[in-house]
Amino acid sequence: MSKKIAAGADCIVLDVKVGEGAFMKTPEAAQELATEMVSIGTNVGRKTVAIISDMDQPLGLGIGNALEVEEAINTLKGNGPKDLVELCLTLGSYMVTLAGAAENVEEARTKLEETITSGAAIAKLKEFVKAQGGDTACIDDTNLLPKAKYIIPVLADKDGVVEKIHAESIGLIAMELGAGRATKESVIDLAVGIVLNKKRGEQVVKGDVIAYIHSNDENNIEKAKKDILNNYVISPSYVDNIPLIHHIVD
Predict the structure, then answer these.
(1) What is the pLDDT of residue 118?
(2) How do the domains of the chain map onto residue ranges?
(3) Interval 130-159: pLDDT, tens
(4) How far lies 168's CA from each of 28, 179, 232, in Å?
(5) How crowded is residue 183: how many other Cβ atoms within 10 Å of its Cβ?
(6) Which CATH class name applies to 146-235?
(7) What is d(CA 52, CA 179) in angstroms, rounded to the nearest whole number?
(8) What does the radius of gyration of the chain's CA atoms come to, in whole angstroms?
(9) Are 158 and 172 in contact (CB under 8 A)?
(10) Would the pTM count as exceeding 0.90?
């Protein structure tokens, strides 16, 4: 909050994560943090809203640097994962409303959806990338982004419904593949990571692809396969009733 306030932002929308993969593990802790952050912003004259959103499973499908960049590009083109699109539209709608560019969040959402369908959203991303000296060609052709040498499917070992994906553990597996740093000396491989193919509440049959490993080291693939399987909970039956948006604090 201090950086946002110091930078001069007059409207602030916070995404407060809750769940196994978040800093705040329980709804109560997330609510307390969100309330405190909104209070800080309000007390210094900033229009502030906090969205408490689910992180009990990974958001979207890609986990890894280039994989997440590609997913963000696809989202702005209108082809993003359902949960990521919904969260972006929710956060964006509140920001547009706070800024006075829409009368309410419903109108704001319609405007945001129009920027995606019209191509204005992806055009704005190109402006941002160009302004920072980046290569906009990879936005038109995501095959220009770093790609892993090995893309290996992980197959379900039983029939059922995905009840849980241990978000924090999946993130650590991606780190071990090279997508993150175990120590400050670790070298990040921009190409590697995990792409989920099945999310919570989805039906699977033994042999279905539940995820893909993207790796540049064939020696870490088998361990990653085993670890991913161990962190997918597949039950005989399950109805997913965990909301993406838990609560809005304003």
Answers:
(1) 98
(2) 2-141+245-249, 146-235
(3) 999 999 999 999 999 999 999 999 999 999
(4) 19, 14, 12
(5) 5
(6) alpha beta
(7) 26
(8) 19
(9) no
(10) yes
The per-residue pLDDT for 211 is: 98
* pLDDT average, residue stretch 3-21: 95
Alpha-carbon distance of 43 to 27, in angstroms, equals 24
DSSP letter assigned to residue 247: E
Question: Which residue in this structure is represented by tokens 């560019």?
Answer: 101
Helices (H), the chain: 2-6, 27-43, 65-76, 82-98, 105-118, 120-131, 137-140, 167-174, 221-230
Q: What is the pLDDT of residues 37-80, one digit of tens each?
A: 999 999 999 999 999 999 999 999 999 999 999 999 999 999 99
DSSP collapsed to 3 states, 56-83: CCCCCCEECHHHHHHHHHHHHCCCCCHH
Report yes or no: 84 and 73 within 8 Å, Cβ to Cβ: no
pLDDT digits (tens, 9 = 90+) for 85-106: 999 999 999 999 999 999 999 9
Q: Which of 154, 156, 152 is nearest to 203 (CA)?
A: 156
126 alpha carbon, distance to own chain's centre:
20
Q: What is the pLDDT of residue 89?
A: 98
Assess if CATH 3.40.1030.10 describes domain 2-141+245-249. Answer: yes
Identify which of 198, 111, 116, 124 has the alpha carbon closest to the alpha carbon of residue 161: 198
Virtual CA dihedral for 179, 27, 61, 218, nearest 10 degrees?
30
Q: Please, which pLDDT band fits residue 107 given cuts at 50, 70 and 90?
A: very high
